[in-house]
Fold this sequence. Notes:
2 copies of one chain form a homodimer. By secondary structure, the first copy, chain A, is an alpha+beta fold. In chain A, a hairpin with a 4-residue loop joins strand 3 (86-87) and strand 4. The first copy, chain A, has a 3-stranded antiparallel beta sheet with strand order 1-2-5, sandwiched between helices. In chain A, strands 3-4 form a two-stranded antiparallel sheet. Chain A is globular. Chain A has helices spanning 3-9, 23-34, 56-62, 66-70, 95-112, 125-131, 161-164; strands spanning 45-51, 73-80, 86-87, 92-93, 138-146, 165-167. In chain A, helix 1 (3-9) packs across helix 5 (95-112) and helix 2 (23-34) runs antiparallel to helix 5 (95-112). The longest helix of chain A is centred in the middle third of the chain and has 18 residues, at 95-112. Chain A has one domain (3-164): NADH Oxidase (3-Layer(aba) Sandwich). Chain A is built from 7 helices and 6 strands; from the N terminus they run H-H-E-H-H-E-E-E-H-H-E-H-E. At the A-B interface, helix 1, helix 2, strand 1, helix 5 and helix 6 of A face helix 1, helix 2, strand 1, helix 5 and helix 6 of B. Strand 1 of chain A pairs parallel with strand 6 of chain B.
Amino acid sequence: MDLFDVIKRRYSVRAYRPDPVEEEKLQEILEAGRLAPTAANRQPFRIIVVRTAGRTEALARIYGRDWFTDAPLVLCLCGVEEEGWVRGKDDKSYIDVDAAIVMDHLVLAATALGLGTCWIAAFDPDAAREVLSLPDGVAPLLFTPLGYPADQPRPKQRKDLDDLVKWNRW
Amino acid sequence: MDLFDVIKRRYSVRAYRPDPVEEEKLQEILEAGRLAPTAANRQPFRIIVVRTAGRTEALARIYGRDWFTDAPLVLCLCGVEEEGWVRGKDDKSYIDVDAAIVMDHLVLAATALGLGTCWIAAFDPDAAREVLSLPDGVAPLLFTPLGYPADQPRPKQRKDLDDLVKWNRW
């Protein structure tokens, strides 16, 4: 699917059909994430692919909406802190940026293949660490369900470009 | 261009032709950024579009490679801190994630239109604040040049999927 169509069509899917995600599509989506650029090419992330079947109760501790576990799969983007790039001048870590780029690739790839996703940041990080057995130094940064949408796209509410773009300086 | 082709073709362009970026293409790229999702739809970002002509010296203080200012345009993604979404449970800000999603849309859109970009995190944040006249509470998070490539793509060096993907738990 054309990139600009993918960007227009993506929306936060909050109802999922139980149909499984085809293995071949899952591989294409993961490959799109693998090719994402990261700061200094450190690739300081891991993607945890969780099959929701039989794990609904544990996953609901991470994010308690029914549709989260109605999807057949949940993806979690984790940052491996010791692998991340940090800017020397002000000690700023770019691991959140790296994880977001990877997740954006996964989400756009899923959309292109007719699948639905929903960026989730409002999860319980302590529950995520426990349920997914994350070791120290590994941070859960982003989640999305992955499955076929059972709802309809809504029009996007966005600020105007005039309010988001500045020319040459602030 | 097909999303998966865009993802495969994008590379860090480190040499630019002086040719201008057509206004219509620039608008398409900015629109792709505008449509990006952000946490709680806060849209806590601004895109500064800098025309490099006549500003080479000032811009070189931000990032000192010739190719950075050889491109006709430089884009800066800024985060507006008071507009960003913060998770209540652990005070984690998602403003870096939001900025990265927007930049990823800009970069992919540019690639689809035959233009080149290069994600830059290793810039001087103090120089960026000064040169771009950023007020307090506005953080420079990411830069890229934007222009027609004068170099060739290189093969991507990435870890194997087996090293990046985990199943069900860590």
